[in-house]
Amino acid sequence: MHPEPAPHPPVIRAPQVHRPTPFPPAVTVPAPLVAVQPEQVPAVASIVLPDGRVITGYAVNPTQPAAAPPAVSRTAVNVALAGVGFGAVCGGLFLLTAFIAALTAFITQLIILAAVVFGGWIAVQALGTGGHRGGTTVNIRRAVFKRNHFHG
To answer: Is 39 helix (H, G, I), strand (E, B) or coil?
Structure first.
């Protein structure tokens, strides 16, 4: 249905060379020079070298370096200090809460201990067969027999 592809000779084309178009140079206009008189005429200093030569020039005052800005801004320091303060308050409140919980548990244990000791003392008093026989003694078996009319 389709025809067989016929071999074609390769097409040779001449290479195209693209050369960029240079921009025209920018025209710079030098700023006009304005003569400014110094506030005062500096003093001329002359120095005599050991070999006899004389060097004349203006004395130059050493420049003072500009004060360096702080490494960290004041706002950042204030925010950091506020964060540290907030963390300290939160930690203190956490410790206070833990202390109150521990104190509550301790008081609860003391109340339970007092109840056990006092309950034990009452049990010993009521059920004990101690040497002193003060108070009323009830013979439970005889009372049951009397109530059920078993006289012995």
So the answer is: coil
